[in-house]
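Protocol step 4 of 5: obtain the predicted structure for the target chain.
Materials: sequence only (see below). No template structures provided, no constraints applied. The aim of this step is simply to have a reference model before the mutagenesis design in step 5. Sequence pasted as it appears in the construct record:
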Amino acid sequence: MFNITRRGALMGGAALTTTASHIPEAGAQAPNLPIESGATLRVLRPARFVEPDEVLMRANIARFTQQTGVPVRIDFVGWEDIRPQTAVTANTGAGPDMIIGWPEDPHIFADRLIDVSDIAEYLGRQYGGWMSLAERFGKRAGTNNWLAIPIGGSGGPMIYRKSALREAGFNAMPNNHDDFLRLCQALRRINKPA
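Step 4 output (structure tokens):
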């Protein structure tokens, strides 16, 4: 049986979540985060939205436990229950060790979290850096210190009607913010939703 710190669990969990996605690796040196004797890990996360989400999460957890010897308990709760349970955990210090929750929650409870800059910087070096939105959600406001590890992105898939784009004066969906804003303004002028 091995033990692991919360920092080590974050490191291992973040590494395992990227394993299945085949992201190119740079061969960065991982931080030295030894596993503590007798460690266990409890994770709270939203219930699945689609079945493969939970299947892959459970497979990654099983692989993590196999590689480290650290038993992991994962609790799936309704999406609407994540924020209240995060607040209880932050205010009492009891409950899960890690929470997969809403991107703004780490900032609400910033003083209750450990600094995970060493892990975030390693992951950035290993997998090609962080996008600006990930840094915004992961770093403590006004600092370069990471208080959360972003593990995904949302916003949903962008869909559009080619005819509406052409009517607004565009041949294709813009690939930068300035042109996207111009597209939205043009769509508004012709009374089409953005």
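Step 4 remarks: Confidence is low (pLDDT under 50) at residues 15-21. The helical segments are 6-19, 51-68, 79-92, 105-108, 117-127, 132-138, 162-167, 177-189.
Proceed to step 5.
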